[in-house]
Write a structure and sequence with these properties.
The protein is of the alpha+beta class. Helix content is 29%, strand content 20%.
Length: 232
């Protein structure tokens, strides 16, 4: 389980990791910057990796003849990591790929070229909807999304991190040190990466399935991909 901290605690610990003064009076001018950096770092880590302890499932009922659907309040587009479909009346599931090629949409109307079960593909259709292909034919079909639970707010001093606080702090500290061209910036980044790999491994230890977690972060290559057991 992630070891969380309040934002107030995280700011203080970030100052310590980055070699800043811990005196409250001296840190007033940088407090807003540090809070933003911690919030943004958590968001990048959340987006870059599958976090097993945050994983949730969301079943969307599919209707015959309908290809467009809205997201639920549980899982929005950027939180979805995988999708599966089930035949009407069946308990078996098949993987649903992302992306619908042009040859699967009618010219002019952009309706699906085929209607059958089960759904094989899906993709975003604007900020609030998604499209499936082929168009469901029979009633009872289900599209199941799996992904990360949304982050809790990290704005007020009393707000707690959703992800492991040490992981967030180490990555944020490595960025601060890199900005100031500190000699130990690379060492701090390596420490952050080791902690992340160990953290994800601990979260799924004892599980049998294998999955590849992570990619480059939106801000660069700080977050390395890691192969971790668990989470199909």
């Amino acid at each position: 389980m992630a070891r969380t901290q309040t934002l107030l605690e995280m700011v203080s610990n970030l100052r310590a990791e980055a070699g800043h003064s811990l005196a409250t009076a001296q840190g007033v001018n940088t407090e807003a910057t540090l809070k933003y950096l911690l919030k943004r770092t958590q968001e990048e880590l959340w987006a870059a990796f599958v976090w097993p302890e945050l994983m949730i499932r969301d079943d969307r009922a599919l209707n015959p003849g309908a290809a467009l659907y809205g997201y639920s309040t549980e899982l929005k587009f950027d939180a979805i990591r995988d999708a599966y479909s089930s035949h009407p009346g069946s308990a078996s599931w098949s993987h649903v790929g992302y992306g619908i090629n042009e040859d699967k949409l009618e010219a002019g109307t952009m309706t699906n070229t085929s209607s059958s079960d089960p759904v094989q593909l899906w993709e975003a259709a604007g900020p609030t909807q998604f499209r499936v292909w082929p168009t469901p034919y029979a009633s009872g079909a289900i599209l199941r999304f799996k992904g990360n639970r949304e982050l809790q707010p990290l704005v007020a001093n009393a707000d707690s991190s959703t992800l492991d606080a040490t992981c967030i702090i180490l990555f944020a500290a490595s960025e601060l040190l890199a900005r100031s061209k500190a000699e130990d910036a690379a060492n701090k980044l390596q420490k952050a990466q080791r902690h992340l790999t160990k953290l994800l491994g601990n979260q799924v230890s004892g599980k049998n399935k294998i999955s590849t977690y992570g990619t480059s972060s939106p801000g660069g290559g700080a977050y390395h991909a890691a192969v971790i057991a668990g989470y199909p």
